[in-house]
Design a protein that fits this description.
The complex is a heterodimer of chains A (554) and B (291).
Chain A (H helix, E strand, L loop, with lengths): L3 H20 L4 E13 L11 H6 L1 E13 L2 E13 L8 E15 L2 E8 L1 E2 L7 E2 L1 E2 L4 E2 L2 E11 L2 E12 L2 E2 L3 E8 L2 E2 L6 E13 L2 H11 L10 E2 L2 E13 L2 E23 L5 E22 L2 E11 L42 E14 L2 E11 L8 E14 L3 E12 L1 H5 L7 E13 L4 E10 L6 E12 L3 E13 L13 E11 L2 E10 L2 E5 L2 E5 L2 E11 L1
Chain B lengths: L2 H35 L4 E2 L11 E7 L6 H14 L4 E7 L19 H9 L8 E4 L10 E2 L3 H9 L5 E10 L4 E10 L6 E10 L2 E7 L4 E8 L2 E5 L6 E3 L8 E9 L9 E10 L6 E8 L3
Classes of the chains: A mainly beta (554), B alpha+beta (291).
């Protein structure tokens, strides 16, 4: 079946390679590898225990090996994926499988580009279609099929895609097809005003098996929740434009999705027992509006973003949830933080009901001094419970002494609805105040030392934390790091006792880079938390052990 | 012609081209819409169970799983709708059932057989998970709660390949139980026939994390909890295989734990066909320990 197709492709790639060799033609070959190997050392005290990896497997790995070739206008590529005792699919269990994770063949014929295989692409900002890969979250929703792109005029492209979405080493059975027109037009004098409009359309047809399963579930709903008919097809359309006028850039995208049977985890459902519960399939249209206005000039950068989402769950299978089967991508509306403690609580994008605002102001006084303020607010306007779900105020100041040192410091304030985002019932909203300092000093031309200090003050969740990092670099090869995340003031129970022990989570690591190859070995103790990328999040369980990472481009 | 005029005409040409492209695209979009509007939607009919197929639902659950009570409510819902066609076993196993990780309440509801089945019926992709007749749906054995109903309704429509009756003797003083299965093949199929006998207990009052109830519920009532098995966890093989008209008779015995409440216990029996990595349940049944 599907698994046999890549074998044929492998033969095809090999044949092409032989042809090229025999013909003595110019061939361009490249590739890369990324490999993560985890050595698990049980530590029940921090919760790193009782999963197959800690109990008996002891070693787990994920590897992606990609090979690409270009010859006579053809582009071919293949990627082999290995998951062995991996916790990426389910943080409390183990996942093992391997096979061809991606293959493709592409060729440009005049104005027409033909691309077949695993497609990574998007329409606009991805609101109705984004096929992409996010390895730390095990998101790989490539569209397996055909993509045709035609340059209809300079700066104007029309694109069509069709296929089925990848589901690990299999495919979802629904069929997707879409069209996208993208363009660019100078409309002002001397190119000072320009527009980049676009329109996209994505169409989904449920397979007979999916519809049978959906009908089987809906047929057992009580009269209060019963849905009498369900369309096989649903369609999402988005219209977007970027207007560039001098120092201003305005992006606007609106999207609409026709009636689609989606699972609403907050909808009330009446059971045959008379009990009310939450979560059921609903047949609703959806919409999304997103805009961002940016000003940049004279050292000042200001941007404002607004987003409203309603019932914009668009998946390749109505029964999958979390990070699986996602056809589209809803842009996150909070700052993507990078420091350990400022990134500890990140809001996942809400598909059913979300309204969000974000402002970002940065001002560079001169090349050595700059400031940044970011404010984000996210609510669920139609929710009766958990309406205010996220607030963040983030400030940052950067000072530089040219070729000597850089000091970055600031403070973050967050209100994070942990009950909603992490599904922890009854827990209060986390209110955290986090000052931080990042100091980089260049000791000489090759050596530098970077120090981080962060303190998170909160009475909720685990309580307050301190994080310290020292990172010593010897350019261009070595980085040595030591850090500790210390639960300095654990939150308290009602009787005044500590909820958790004031534990330390140290990390010791060494990174060696040689050319485009990087080796990293770390001893890690890591507290459980949420890991997010672009508003998509997953629970990252506590970790204890060694982590080895290899990345190489060749 | 001046340079500015050339630019002007170029822009006009580009604008015309743009307009033409937009019109073309809108036409294509319109065709898509027409195709969509014209579709024949799937009519949903209320499900009315028919026939004598009894489906087995094995739920993977745990006291530390905050969404599992939602699964239990779905089980009650399904049992209300399908009282004659569904038997349920709640298997407390895996991460969320581990009292070292979730030290809730007083009982450890795990069993050796349950832990075996957690892996045997795996891989697990989240809690609560349900396995319907040990038959994968879209290559997945463990299904999320919103997919149980459809899998069950699909299985109910297949007539059973085997029929059997359950008789048992129980001696309350010694807690000795003997269960006898008398069966007959209704179809001929290759593979090894296995009989499994599970003992479940309902009405166990103990703590449970319950998201919909706002957190830990100390007096939560656990139902259909797997307590023990009289057969090996993967079932006991029946000699002779599955042949139309061929009968079989099997007896299994065991001693129940004295702390279990006999009045709340059920004997769950099912016959499965084991062939390589496939082991679908052909028919299931249940009787109360104390009628």
């Amino acid at each position: 079946m599907y698994r046999t197709a890549p074998r044929n492709l492998l033969a095809l790639v090999f044949s092409l390679y032989l042809t090229v060799c025999l013909a003595q033609e110019q061939l361009s070959l490249s590739g890369n590898i990324e490999s993560n190997v985890n050595f698990y050392i049980k530590d029940a005290e921090i919760g790193a225990a009782n999963t197959p990896q800690y109990e008996h497997q002891k070693v787990g790995m994920e590897t992606w090996l990609t090979l690409r070739a270009s010859y006579a206008g053809f582009d071919v590529g293949i990627r082999y994926d290995i998951f062995a005792n991996s916790a990426l699919l389910n943080p409390t269990d183990s996942y093992t499988d391997q096979g061809i994770g991606r293959w493709y063949i592409g060729k440009k014929v005049g104005k027409l580009s033909i691309f077949g295989g695993h497609i990574y692409d998007q329409f606009g900002s991805g609101v109705i279609f984004k096929a992409y890969e996010e390895r730390p979250l095990l998101i790989d929703n490539a569209l397996v099929g055909l993509k045709l792109t035609y340059d209809i005029a300079p700066n104007w492209t029309i694109k069509g895609v069709a296929g089925r979405q990848k589901n690990l080493f299999d495919l979802y059975t629904s069929f997707l097809k879409g069209l996208n027109l993208d363009g660019y037009l100078d409309i002002g004098k001397e190119g000072k005003i320009a527009i980049a409009p676009g329109i996209g359309l994505m169409h989904k047809t449920l397979s007979d098996e999916q519809m049978d399963a959906l009908a089987g579930t809906l047929s057992q709903y009580t009269p209060e929740d019963f849905i009498h008919e369900v369309p096989y097809n649903s369609m999402a359309i988005s219209v977007y434009n970027t207007l560039i006028a001098g120092r201003f850039t305005w992006y606007l995208e609106t999207a609409y999705k026709t009636e689609d049977a989606i699972y609403d985890p907050y909808a009330t459902r009446t059971l045959w027992t008379g009990v009310e519960t939450v979560g059921k399939f609903v047949l609703e249209p959806g919409y999304m509006a997103y805009t961002t206005l940016t000003y940049a000039g004279g050292g000042l950068g200001i941007s404002g973003q607004y987003k409203r989402t309603r019932n914009f769950n668009f998946r390749a299978d109505p029964f999958v949830d979390l990070n699986r089967g996602i056809i589209n991508f809803l842009p996150p509306m909070s700052r993507i933080n990078t420091y350990r403690l400022t990134a500890r609580y990140s809001p996942a994008t809400q598909e059913i009901d979300e309204e969000a605002l974000q402002f970002d102001v940065n001002y560079a006084v001169n090349k050595n001094l700059s400031f940044l303020v970011n404010v984000a607010k996210i609510i669920r306007p139609l929710a009766e419970e958990n309406r205010d779900i996220y607030t963040e105020v983030y400030t940052q100041a950067s000072f530089k002494k040219s070729r000597k040192w850089t000091l970055t410091t600031g403070v973050q304030y967050q209100e994070y609805n942990q009950e909603l985002y992490e599904g922890k019932p009854g827990v209060p909203t986390v209110k955290a105040f986090t000052p931080y300092v990042d100091y980089l000093v260049k000791l000489n031309q090759k050596r530098s030392l970077r120090s981080e200090f962060q303190y998170m003050s909160t009475n909720e969740d685990f309580g307050s934390w301190i994080y310290l990092l020292e990172e010593f670099s010897i350019s261009p090869h070595w980085i040595f790091e030591v850090s500790d995340m210390w639960n300095i003031s654990p939150s308290l129970n009602e009787d005044g006792t500590k909820k958790v022990d004031d534990l330390h989570f140290p990390t010791l690591g060494v990174v060696y880079s040689a050319g485009s190859t990087r080796y990293a070995l770390r001893y890690v103790k890591q507290v459980e938390g949420i890991v997010c990328s672009g508003g998509i999040c997953r629970l990252e369980p506590a970790f204890s052990g060694f982590k080895f990472n290899l990345t190489s481009n060749f | 012609m001046k340079k500015t005029e050339v630019k002007y005409f170029q822009k006009i040409a580009v604008a015309r081209s743009f307009l033409l492209q937009q019109v073309t695209f809108i036409c294509v979009v319109f065709v898509f819409f027409l195709v969509s509007c014209d579709e024949q939607k799937r009519i949903i009919e209320p499900f009315v169970p028919e026939g004598d197929r009894i489906v087995l639902l094995e739920e993977i659950t745990g006291k530390g799983c905050t969404n599992c009570p939602k699964g239990s409510r779905e089980i009650d819902n399904l049992l209300t709708l399908l009282p004659e066609n569904l038997v349920v076993v709640s298997i407390h196993a895996g991460f969320f059932a581990n009292p070292q990780i979730f030290p809730l309440g007083q009982y450890d509801l795990r069993t050796t057989e349950g832990e075996f089945l957690y892996n045997y019926l795996g891989p697990n992709a989240g809690y609560p998970a349900g396995v319907v007749n040990r038959t994968p749906v879209n290559n997945e054995m463990q299904l999320s709660a919103n997919a149980w109903a459809s899998a069950i309704s699909s299985e109910i429509q297949n007539p059973p390949a085997v029929e059997f009756s359950i008789s048992h003797t129980y001696i309350p003083d010694t807690h000795e139980l003997t269960v006898t299965i008398n069966g007959i093949g209704k179809e001929t199929r290759s593979g090894e026939v296995h009989v499994s006998i599970m003992l479940t207990e309902s009405g166990i009052v103990d703590a449970q994390d319950d998201f919909e109830a706002g957190g830990i519920v100390e007096d939560y009532v656990h139902n259909h909890v797997l307590r023990d098995m009289l057969t090996p966890a993967s079932g006991a093989p029946v000699t002779g295989g599955l042949i139309t008209g061929q009968t079989f008779n099997e007896s299994y015995s065991g001693v129940l734990n004295a702390s279990w409440v006999e009045e709340n216990m059920e004997i769950i029996v099912f016959v499965s066909l084991v062939e390589g990595n496939n082991f679908p349940v052909l028919q299931a049944g249940k009787v109360k320990l104390i009628p």
